[in-house]
Write a structure and sequence with these properties.
Blueprint lengths: L5 E2 L6 E2 L2 E4 L12 H13 L4 E3 L8 H9 L9 E6 L1 E3 L2 E2 L3 H15 L4 E6 L8 H17 L3 E8 L2 H10 L4 E5 L9 H4 L1 H7 L2 E5 L20 H16 L4 H10 L6 E5 L3 H11 L5 H11 L15
Helix pairs in contact: 1-2, 1-10, 2-3, 3-4, 8-11
């Protein structure tokens, strides 16, 4: 069964319910095979995934380079391509007008295209002066759109409050929100979705597994969630295992069936991952298991963690 397409805000774009995330091509989740990754991109397109997201931050341009290779030979015309600018490394950011323009030009070269469909300022909560960013950085994005380097513009971040301010302060086509439409935190639905709808801004939801938190293996050592959240999630994973189920699959199914979401971004680097993600969003979660897991996670529901300079 082909993936159904959904409108992304007021952009006029129709997107697949899954967005192919290029983060793994930056080496964030360990080693991967480049040729296998390119085959995964082609397979995803053939199976109906049409939105692909990357960033210069992912491997210092490595992710963009691999996706650029994969999209030669007519593949580029079949997809909606998104990248970002402003975040250079883990603790290095430059949201200035000139830096945003330079970053976009480099991205276009690596992606082997004359334009991207969506360009976003990456993780804006790390800029202390948001008023400056909503002027300087937005003007850079708007300039690049006017120049035809991108079709739509947006901003990304973790704190919902910073995205709400961005939407109401700038004319944004799209935002990326992550880890806020998950089994343990669905606050995006009440806090951000109404603001986005009122302003015609599309939301690309990301990380249904909450950056590896919602897995049987448990979160990576660097995961910023508080200890109480990790303990509760471990209990949920153990409960799923006793039922012969997988927490990650349940988490993907849950997010895929939340009301009002256009698409959910998931990092992928292999054909097996593409097929597993499509299978998960194409089937509904088992009601009894879902109810039991949500009850286990209820005490920590909506508990997040600090990110950047945002404190509200």
């Amino acid at each position: 069964m082909p993936l159904s397409l959904r409108p992304l805000g007021s952009t006029g774009l129709l997107v697949s319910p899954i967005t192919f995330g290029g983060g793994p091509f930056g080496g964030f989740y360990g080693a991967f095979d480049e040729s296998q990754g390119i085959r995964a991109i082609h397979h995803a397109i053939e199976r109906g995934i049409n939105l692909f997201d990357t960033s210069p931050y992912y491997g210092g341009g490595r992710s963009e380079e691999i996706i650029g290779k994969a999209l030669t030979g007519g593949w580029r015309e079949k997809i909606i391509l998104a990248t970002k600018a402003g975040r250079i490394a883990k603790d290095v950011f430059d949201f200035s007008f000139d830096a945003m323009v330079r970053s976009c030009e480099t991205s276009l070269r690596l992606l082997k295209t004359d334009h991207v469909d969506i360009l976003q300022a990456h993780d804006i909560e790390f800029q202390a002066n948001l008023d400056w960013l909503f002027d300087e950085t937005w003007r850079a994005l708007d300039h690049l759109r006017t120049q035809g380097k991108c079709r739509f513009i947006g901003m990304t971040g973790f704190p919902l409050g910073v995205l709400e301010r961005a939407i109401t302060s700038c004319r944004l086509d799209v935002v990326i929100s992550y880890c806020h439409a998950t089994l343990n935190d669905s606050t995006m639905l009440a806090k951000l979705l109404p603001v986005a709808k009122a302003n015609g801004t599309g939301i690309i939801n990301a990380s249904p597994l909450s950056m590896g938190l919602l897995t049987q293996a448990g979160p990576p050592d660097w995961h910023p969630a508080p200890a109480e959240v990790k303990v509760a999630v471990q209990r949920a994973a153990e409960h799923c295992a006793k039922k012969g189920a997988d927490l990650a699959r349940l988490a993907q199914q849950y997010t895929a069936h939340l009301p009002g979401l256009s698409t959910t971004l998931v990092g992928m680097s292999s054909i097996a991952q593409v097929d597993a993600n499509i299978e998960a969003v194409s089937s509904a979660p088992e009601p009894q298991l879902l109810s039991e897991v949500l009850e286990i996670l209820k005490p920590i529901s909506g508990i997040g963690w600090p990110s950047g300079t945002w404190t509200a």
